[in-house]
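In the current project phase, we have settled on a layout for protein records. A sample record is reproduced below.
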Amino acid sequence: MIELIKVLEARALDDRRLWVRFSNGREGVRDFADIFAEGGVVVEPLRDPAMFKRVFLEFGAPSWPSGFDMDPTALYREMEAAGALTQVAAE
């Protein structure tokens, strides 16, 4: 059984990469090139770097004013499978 995963922090790094920190202390960067390639009504506005930078968290999910959001558990599993997560050092 997988624990409930939420995104605690999210920050746009440039016009297509998103840094996220999860509630279990792991973090990584998600490239949106594949999402942009698929396109869609709520994805198209994110091609504008100013819009992409407007990411916010809603119930632990990265979200944008266009209506696009990412399920935090699915995002975590995807990034874990890709080897894109690291453990945050204890502060």
